[in-house]
Amino acid sequence: MNPDDYNPIAAALKEDIGNGDITSDFFVPERLQAIGRIVAHQPAVIAGTATAAEIFRKVDPATEVQIVHADGDAVVPGDVVIEVRGVARSILKAERVALNFLQRLCGVATLTRQFVDAVGNHPAKILDTRKTTPGLRVLEKAAVVAGGGVNHRSGLYDMVLVKDNHLAALGGLSGFADQIRQLRKERPNIRIEVEADDLEQVRAFVEIEGIDAILLDNMVPAQIREALALRRNNIKFEASGGITLKNVRRIAATGVDFISIGALTNSAPAVDLGLEMTHVHG
Questions:
Q1: Is the pLDDT of residue 4 over 70?
Q2: What is the pLDDT of residues 64-87, one digit of tens each?
Q3: What angle do CA 268, 270, 272 make, to 5 degrees?
Q4: 96 is annotated as an active-site residue
Q5: In the predicted model, what is the mean pLDDT of residues 165-190?
Q6: Which of 47, 66, 72, 207 is the most buried (most CB within 10 A)?
Q7: Topology, domain 116-266
Q8: Is 58 a catalytic residue?
């Protein structure tokens, strides 16, 4: 299969349904109509409703889907997120795949909201990273936005981020300023960010014209404040590495512009949701 042709919804449905739902096809009458409701079993922030709706409609275009709580909504246990009406077999075939996506994406949105809330009144924006589930980046980054976060680069193609391994491959900073100037000349509208492992690198980077942002990697609040004191030319600063719900407010209090957190998409626990068949009629 060509990776460019990959469709996560189609792949997930094929993976789960295969040649058919043996259980539903044997036990559930073919024309039986049903109403199903996806219900929250814990407090959460909703994300992925459009994806879940598409899954139900992919299985059976005749299924009616009502999104009760939109992406970004906060819910409590017992709240109905989505209601579906249609053929019972179709609802049952789509159930697990829809829940898998929804639980995963709600988890991302919920964790993001927790970080956003933890920052409080500080202006720092919570960013995601490229540490996403393969094939689900677009969906997971949308879930970050639903949770109140901000998307960092989508991939390697839409922004420059020079990291330690790039500098190691180059053999250090010799000639680096000239390369930045050349890049800015060739790609005047591209955003350029560089990663600094220590304050010595920050001092070097702030002197280079053309850099938009500096990523402060695994720095403690005191180091971040020192780095911010070196700011020139409206360079933005991003803190990253070792950020948790316990320390994110202290990091934000330094005055840093952005805080990037890989855990938003690579460690978010799934939200507990369930589909309940509340009414069936023939």
A1: no
A2: 999 999 999 999 999 999 999 999
A3: 145
A4: yes
A5: 89
A6: 47
A7: TIM Barrel (3.20.20)
A8: no
Residue spans in the chain of domains classed CATH 3.90.1170.20:
3-110+269-281
The predicted-structure confidence for 14-54, as pLDDT tens digits, reads as follows 999 999 999 999 999 999 999 999 999 999 999 999 999 99
Percent of the chain with pLDDT strictly greater than 90 = 91
Catalytic (active site) residue 93: no
Q: Does the active-site annotation cover 203?
A: no
| Reduced 3-state DSSP string for 165-234 | HHHHHHCCCCCHHHHHHHHHHHCCCCCEEEEECCHHHHHHHCCCCCCCEEEEECCCHHHHHHHHCCCCCC
Q: Which of 117, 212, 217, 257 is catalytic?
A: 217
Q: Among the options 54, 60, 85, 96, which is catalytic?
A: 96
- Average pLDDT on 183-192 reads 95
Choose, from 14, 25, 64, 163, the residue flagged as catalytic.
163
Catalytic residue among 71, 79, 95, 195: 195
- The active-site residue out of 85, 130, 131, 191 is 131
Residues of the chain with CATH 3.20.20.70: 116-266
Residue 226 to residue 214: CA distance in whole angstroms: 13
Q: Assess contact for 155 and 134: CB atoms under 8 A.
A: no
């404040």: which residue's tokens? 225
Lowest mean per-residue pLDDT among 4-8, 21-25, 130-134: 4-8
Check if 163 is active-site: yes
How far is residue 132's CA from residue 18's CA, in Å, rounded to a whole number? 26
pLDDT, tens digit, for every residue of 209-219? 999 999 999 99
Q: What is the mean pLDDT of the chain?
A: 94
Phi-psi region of 83 (alpha: psi -120 to 50; beta: other; left: phi over 0): beta
* Continuous segment of H or E residues that includes residue 250: helix 248-252
